[in-house]
Amino acid sequence: MTxxxxxxxxxxxxxxxxxxxxxxxxxxCVGVIVVSPLQKIxxxxxxxxxxxxxxxxLSKLRPGMFADTGIPRLLEAIKQKGYDGKxxxxxxxxxxxxxxxxxxxxxxxxxxxxxxxxxxxAYRLGAMAEDxxxxxxxTVSVDPVSGKVLISSPGRGEWEL
Length: 161
Hints:
Elements: E1 2-6, E2 11-14, E3 19-26, E4 30-36, E5 41-47, H1 56-61, H2 67-80, E6 90-95, H3 108-122, E7 127-132, E8 138-142, E9 149-153, E10 157-160
Helix pairs in contact: 2-3
C-alpha cells in the first residue's frame, strides 16, 4: 500500500486501490474528505484559511490553501479520476481546532469549518460526518476502496470517522 501525503494547501485524489491519501497536523486547518463509494474514488484537501480574498496571488499559486478555491479544485480532481457526477458522494470534515488561541481571538479553526460547509452547500453537498473543533491536532487518512476515514491524534489513539 502506498501513501500519498497531502501538505498544507494541497489536495490529492485517487482511484488506485493500492493508495491511501493522508494529511497530518490538522490543527486549525480543515481536511475535506470526499469519497465516491461505488466508484472507489477518494479525495482529500488540506485547507489553511477560509477565504482567498485575503491573498489573491497566493490563491492562484496554491488554491488548496483556501476553502473557496480549494473545494472546487478537489471536486474537479475526483472528476478527473473518473467520478461521473451521478453516484452519491460522501463528504466528511476533520480539524478546525482552536490551537494556540485560548481566548478564541482569531477563531481560524471555526472559520475554516464554516467556510468549508458554506462552499460545500453551494455544491449541494453536506458533511455526513465531522470531527472538528476542540483543541487538538489530527492526522487523517482515507482509503478509496473501503471509503474508511481514519483519524489519529497523539495521546488519543486512532478512530474512524
